[in-house]
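Subject: Predicted fold for Early nodulin-93-like, 104 residues

User T.R. writes:
Posting the sequence so we have a shared reference for the thread.
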Amino acid sequence: MAKNVAHSPLERNSLASLDQKLSMAKRCGLEGVVAGAKAAVVATIATAIPTFASVRSLPWARANLNPTAQALIISTVAGSAYFIVADKTVLATARRNSFKGYQP
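User M.O. replies:
I've generated the C-alpha coordinates; pasting them so everyone works from the same file.
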Protein backbone atom coordinates (compact mmCIF):
# COMPACT_ATOMS: atom_id res chain seq x y z
CA MET A 1 0.00 0.00 0.00
CA ALA A 2 2.88 2.37 0.73
CA LYS A 3 4.24 1.83 -2.80
CA ASN A 4 1.27 3.68 -4.35
CA VAL A 5 1.72 6.88 -2.38
CA ALA A 6 3.26 9.20 -4.99
CA HIS A 7 1.86 8.14 -8.36
CA SER A 8 -0.31 11.12 -9.22
CA PRO A 9 1.19 14.60 -9.72
CA LEU A 10 -0.97 16.04 -6.95
CA GLU A 11 0.33 13.54 -4.44
CA ARG A 12 3.95 14.16 -5.50
CA ASN A 13 3.50 17.90 -5.14
CA SER A 14 1.95 17.50 -1.73
CA LEU A 15 4.85 15.32 -0.60
CA ALA A 16 7.35 17.90 -1.86
CA SER A 17 5.32 20.60 -0.19
CA LEU A 18 5.31 18.62 3.03
CA ASP A 19 9.10 18.26 2.91
CA GLN A 20 9.44 21.98 2.27
CA LYS A 21 7.13 22.79 5.18
CA LEU A 22 9.06 20.44 7.43
CA SER A 23 12.40 22.06 6.56
CA MET A 24 10.89 25.52 7.11
CA ALA A 25 9.59 24.41 10.51
CA LYS A 26 13.01 23.09 11.50
CA ARG A 27 14.67 26.33 10.42
CA CYS A 28 12.00 28.31 12.27
CA GLY A 29 12.65 26.30 15.43
CA LEU A 30 16.40 26.73 15.11
CA GLU A 31 16.01 30.50 14.76
CA GLY A 32 13.91 30.50 17.94
CA VAL A 33 16.52 28.51 19.85
CA VAL A 34 19.36 30.81 18.78
CA ALA A 35 17.42 33.98 19.59
CA GLY A 36 16.32 32.54 22.93
CA ALA A 37 19.87 31.57 23.86
CA LYS A 38 21.13 35.06 23.04
CA ALA A 39 18.37 36.61 25.14
CA ALA A 40 19.14 34.25 28.03
CA VAL A 41 22.82 35.24 28.00
CA VAL A 42 21.95 38.94 28.00
CA ALA A 43 19.36 38.46 30.76
CA THR A 44 21.83 36.48 32.86
CA ILE A 45 24.41 39.24 32.70
CA ALA A 46 21.81 41.96 33.22
CA THR A 47 20.47 40.18 36.31
CA ALA A 48 23.70 38.88 37.82
CA ILE A 49 25.41 42.26 38.12
CA PRO A 50 22.70 43.99 40.21
CA THR A 51 22.05 40.85 42.25
CA PHE A 52 25.68 40.44 43.26
CA ALA A 53 26.08 44.18 43.84
CA SER A 54 23.03 44.31 46.10
CA VAL A 55 24.22 41.33 48.14
CA ARG A 56 27.53 43.07 48.77
CA SER A 57 26.11 46.51 49.58
CA LEU A 58 22.65 46.11 51.15
CA PRO A 59 22.42 44.63 54.66
CA TRP A 60 18.98 43.11 54.04
CA ALA A 61 20.14 41.34 50.88
CA ARG A 62 23.31 40.14 52.59
CA ALA A 63 21.25 38.64 55.41
CA ASN A 64 18.45 37.12 53.32
CA LEU A 65 19.84 36.16 49.91
CA ASN A 66 22.09 33.16 50.22
CA PRO A 67 23.91 31.81 47.12
CA THR A 68 20.99 29.51 46.32
CA ALA A 69 18.55 32.42 46.27
CA GLN A 70 20.91 34.44 44.09
CA ALA A 71 21.21 31.57 41.61
CA LEU A 72 17.44 31.11 41.64
CA ILE A 73 16.85 34.77 40.83
CA ILE A 74 19.35 34.76 37.97
CA SER A 75 18.26 31.44 36.48
CA THR A 76 14.56 32.35 36.66
CA VAL A 77 15.13 35.54 34.69
CA ALA A 78 17.35 33.75 32.16
CA GLY A 79 14.85 30.92 31.67
CA SER A 80 11.89 33.21 31.23
CA ALA A 81 13.83 35.40 28.78
CA TYR A 82 14.75 32.30 26.78
CA PHE A 83 11.20 30.99 26.50
CA ILE A 84 9.60 34.37 25.80
CA VAL A 85 12.05 35.33 23.06
CA ALA A 86 12.12 31.84 21.52
CA ASP A 87 8.32 31.74 21.39
CA LYS A 88 8.02 35.20 19.86
CA THR A 89 10.73 34.38 17.30
CA VAL A 90 9.11 31.11 16.26
CA LEU A 91 5.72 32.77 15.89
CA ALA A 92 7.13 35.71 13.92
CA THR A 93 9.08 33.41 11.61
CA ALA A 94 6.05 31.17 11.08
CA ARG A 95 3.88 34.18 10.32
CA ARG A 96 6.46 35.53 7.86
CA ASN A 97 6.79 32.13 6.16
CA SER A 98 3.03 31.63 5.93
CA PHE A 99 2.66 34.72 3.71
CA LYS A 100 5.53 33.82 1.34
CA GLY A 101 3.42 31.70 -0.99
CA TYR A 102 0.32 33.87 -0.71
CA GLN A 103 -0.63 35.87 -3.81
CA PRO A 104 -3.71 38.12 -3.54
